[in-house]
């Protein structure tokens, strides 16, 4: 366990979550979408980015990483559930960003657990 993972604003997992969320939010600017796809990308992307920022500010916040996994799964499933698979760019962005968010969030859970335990031992 490195000191970097327990200090605020220093965890690469959380920075990746912020970047993934921003990509999702901005993606309707450069691809064709309908109203449903656009708002899904904006809302879920913003929630992913905000949760990443919250995790950056508080590295021991374990539930934030679990929320990332749930948000990533929602984004991944959204093209099928909300019916915008015909918009290839939006659908593929949701699938890729959603899957990466799940992977990064799951990888950050042990790091957040360790930071939480270190914060409790002070």
Description:
Residues 13-106 form the SPW repeat-containing integral membrane domain. It holds the Pfam family SPW. It comes from Amycolatopsis xylanica. Helix 1 (12-26) packs antiparallel against helix 2 and helix 2 (35-57) runs parallel beside helix 4 (88-120). The longest helix is centred in the last third of the chain and has 33 residues, at 88-120. The chain is mostly helical. The chain has one domain (12-120). The model has no long low-confidence stretch (mean pLDDT 86). It is built from 4 helices and no strands. It is elongated. 75% of the residues lie in helices and 0% in strands.
Please describe the structure with a list of short key phrases separated by commas or semicolons.
single chain, 122 residues, mainly alpha, 4 helices
Q: Sheet with the most strands?
A: none
Q: Assign the structural class, choosing from mainly alpha, mainly beta, alpha/beta, alpha+beta, or little secondary structure.
A: mainly alpha
Shape: elongated
Average pLDDT level: 86
Total domain count: 1
N- and C-termini, Cα separation: 16 Å
Quote the beta fraction. under 5%
Radius of gyration: 15 Å
Listing every helix as H and every strand as E from the N terminus to the C terminus, the arrangement reads: HHHH
Oligomer: single chain
Organism: Amycolatopsis xylanica
Domain SPW repeat-containing integral membrane: 13-106
Keywords: Membrane, Transmembrane, Transmembrane helix
Protein name: SPW repeat-containing protein
């Amino acid at each position: 366990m490195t000191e970097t993972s327990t200090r605020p604003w220093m965890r690469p997992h959380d920075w990746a979550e912020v970047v993934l969320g921003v990509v999702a939010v901005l993606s309707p600017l450069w691809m064709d979408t309908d109203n449903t796809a656009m708002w899904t990308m904006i809302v879920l992307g913003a929630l992913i980015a905000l949760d990443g920022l919250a995790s950056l500010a508080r590295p021991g916040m374990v539930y934030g990483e679990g929320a990332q996994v749930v948000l990533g799964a929602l984004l991944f499933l959204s093209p099928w559930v909300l019916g915008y698979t015909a918009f290839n760019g939006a659908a593929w962005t949701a699938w890729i960003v959603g899957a990466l968010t799940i992977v990064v969030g799951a990888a950050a859970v042990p790091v957040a657990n360790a930071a939480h335990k270190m914060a409790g031992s002070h």
